[in-house]
Design brief:
The structure holds 2 protein chains of 2 kinds. By secondary structure, chain A is an all-alpha fold. Chain A has helices spanning about 5-35, 40-60, 65-70, 70-95. In chain A, helix 1 (about 5-35) packs across helix 4 (about 70-95). The longest helix of chain A has about 30 residues, at about 5-35. By secondary structure, chain B is mostly helical. Helices cover about 85% and strands about 0% of the residues of chain B. Chain B is built from 7 helices and no strands. Chain B has helices at about 1-25, 30-50, 55, 60-90, 90-100, 100-110, 120-135. In chain B, helix 1 (about 1-25) crosses helix 4 (about 60-90), helix 2 (about 30-50) packs across helix 4 (about 60-90) and helix 4 (about 60-90) packs antiparallel against helix 5. The N and C termini of chain B lie far apart (about 40 Å). The mean pLDDT of chain B is about 85. Classes of the chains: A mainly alpha, B mainly alpha. Chains A and B meet through helix 1, helix 2, helix 3 and helix 4 of A and helix 1, helix 2, helix 4, helix 5 and helix 6 of B.
C-alpha cells in the first residue's frame, strides 16, 4: 500500500481506528470486572494507566530520546491529549461503577 | 442517571483528547506521543486517586494487579496507540466515529462472557452504530 496517496492513508487510518475500537471495547468489559470485583474506579484507572505506560515505553523506548528533542508543540499537544483522555478513562471507570 | 452523566463526561474527555492527538501527531511520532500522553494522564489520575482513595491504593490483592495489567495492556499500548495512529493517518472526523464503535465490542463480550441480558434497545443501538461506522468507512 502506497501511503503517499491520501485514500490509502485514510483507509489504513480507518482500519487502525477499528482495531482501536475492538481494543477499547474489550477493555471496557475488563474495566467493569475491575470496578465490580477488585478496586474503586480511580484506583483501577491509575494502575491500568501505569501498566499501559510501562509496557508501551518498553516497546518504543528507542525512538523516545530523539523525539523529545523535537519542537515542544507536539509534546504539549500530546500531553493535553493524555490529560483529556485520562479524564475520559477516569469517568469511564466511574460510569461503569454506577452502571446496573 | 449518574452513570450516564459520567459516561457523557468521559465521551467529552475522549473526544477532546482525539483532537489534541491529531494536532500533536503533526509534529511528533505517534508512538512517542502516546507515551507522553500516558505519562501526563497517569500523573493526573495518580494524584486524584491519592486524594480520594489513599487507603485503597495500598490494600490491593495480587489478582487485582493482574486484572489492572490486562486492562492497561489492551487499552493503552494497543488501543490508544492504534487510536492516535489512526487519527494521524485518517483525521479526527473519520477515525473518531469508528473508534466510537467500541461499545459494540463491549456489548458482544458482555453478552457472551458476562451473560448480561439482551434487550431490544441494545439491538437497535448496535445496528445504528454498525451502520454509522459502515457509512464513514465507505465515504469517498
Amino acid at each position: 500500500m502506497n501511503l503517499a496517496f491520501p485514500e490509502n492513508r485514510a483507509l489504513l487510518g480507518s482500519v487502525l481506528a477499528l482495531g482501536a475500537a475492538m481494543a477499547y471495547g474489550s477493555s471496557l468489559y475488563l474495566q467493569k470486572v475491575v470496578v465490580t470485583e477488585y478496586a474503586p474506579p480511580l484506583v483501577g484507572a491509575t494502575f491500568a494507566l501505569l501498566f499501559g505506560m510501562l509496557i508501551l515505553t518498553v516497546m518504543v523506548h528507542r525512538h523516545i530520546p530523539a523525539d523529545l528533542r523535537k519542537p515542544k508543540k507536539g509534546l504539549a499537544m500530546m500531553a493535553l491529549a493524555g490529560l483529556s483522555s485520562s479524564v475520559g478513562v477516569m469517568f469511564s471507570y466511574l460510569s461503569l461503577n454506577h452502571a446496573v | 442517571m449518574l452513570g450516564i452523566t459520567f459516561a457523557l463526561i468521559a465521551a467529552v474527555g475522549f473526544g477532546s483528547g482525539a483532537v489534541f492527538a491529531r494536532l500533536g501527531g503533526l509534529h511528533i511520532r505517534s508512538t512517542t506521543g502516546t507515551v507522553v500522553s500516558l505519562a501526563a494522564g497517569f500523573l493526573m489520575t495518580f494524584i486524584v486517586a491519592l486524594v480520594f482513595n489513599l487507603s485503597d491504593m495500598f490494600s490491593l490483592s495480587g489478582v487485582a494487579f493482574a486484572w489492572f495489567l490486562l486492562a492497561g495492556a489492551i487499552h493503552f499500548p494497543i488501543g490508544r496507540l492504534l487510536n492516535f495512529t489512526g487519527i494521524t493517518l485518517a483525521g479526527v472526523s473519520r477515525a473518531s466515529p469508528i473508534v466510537g464503535a467500541s461499545p459494540l465490542f463491549a456489548i458482544l463480550l458482555a453478552l457472551t462472557l458476562g451473560n448480561e441480558p439482551f434487550e431490544v434497545p441494545i439491538f437497535i443501538g448496535t445496528v445504528l452504530v454498525v451502520t454509522g461506522v459502515a457509512l464513514i468507512v465507505t465515504q469517498r
